[in-house]
């Protein structure tokens, strides 16, 4: 890649290897070298951190997340999760690894079957991955687990027999977070998780995500167009342009002094951004060690 490659992997993880390691990832669509959605991306994501992925529409963010989730096969390069190269895993091993990475999408309603009750929506991953969660005898145990998951995201365990349309956007996003947590993942890919919500609701969902991260030690890859949100939630930010990573760094530093012209251009396009409003970035900027609490 370009000279930017050297610093895209970030600081060494004190706990050892990063949770997620992307090396020289490339994705061409249609077998054409001219249609390159992801181009030579190398990046580490460390256990417990929030890495924000930003860039304009069409720069390759979705393709990159699908590659790192093992949902798309790279044209070149590798994805390792928990120290294991996904390309070397058997189908059963890959299923086991995929359980540890879950996704929360922008519009929870589109990913929910409106005719399914909340209990079945949240239990879906359990029932799909765990044969013991199926069948009449397992029902009480599954309902119990769904109740715990709903409470973990600030909802009442008693809503299980209701339907998605009975809930607000913020409540539906909490339901989709509960579903994402069902299999005890280590990493969540959050794809614009709050951009469909009102600002006040957005804040409560971001607080919930921060709280869950702290309690469960989760790692987040947070895809967002909203730089104010990125400033608030992300430890590091990775900036993509035309399939390439052009800048990766600590959020406060990238917001304060973007090094790449594209990053500056991206930030200039958001005149309302005030990095001082980002709690995490601000805490970092004012801390002598540069560390902020999560
Ligand atoms: N299945 C596909 N077949 C062909 N081209 C594709 C396919 N998926 C994505 N692309 C192309 O790859 C490039 C990157 O698309 P991608 O959806 O990853 O960008 P993005 O940054 O996620 O955009 P957005 O923010 O709008 O979702 C685009 O030029 C897109 O047209």
Automatic annotation (TrEMBL):
Q: Which organism is it from?
A: Streptomyces tendae
Q: Which InterPro entries does the annotation name?
A: AAA+_ATPase, ABC_transp_ATP-bind, ABC_transporter-like_ATP-bd, ABC_transporter-like_CS, Oligopep_ABC_C, P-loop_NTPase
Q: What is this protein called?
A: ABC transporter ATP-binding protein
Q: Which PANTHER family match?
A: D,D-DIPEPTIDE TRANSPORT ATP-BINDING PROTEIN DDPF-RELATED, TRANSPORT ATP-BINDING PROTEIN
* Molecular functions (GO terms): ATP binding
CDD domains reported for this sequence: ABC_NikE_OppD_transporters (cd03257)
**Annotated SUPFAM superfamilies:** P-loop containing nucleoside triphosphate hydrolases (SSF52540)
Domain (ABC transporter): residue spans on this chain:
20-267
> Sorted alphabetically, which keywords does the UniProt record give?
ATP-binding, Nucleotide-binding, Transport
The record's similarity note reads: Belongs to the ABC transporter superfamily.
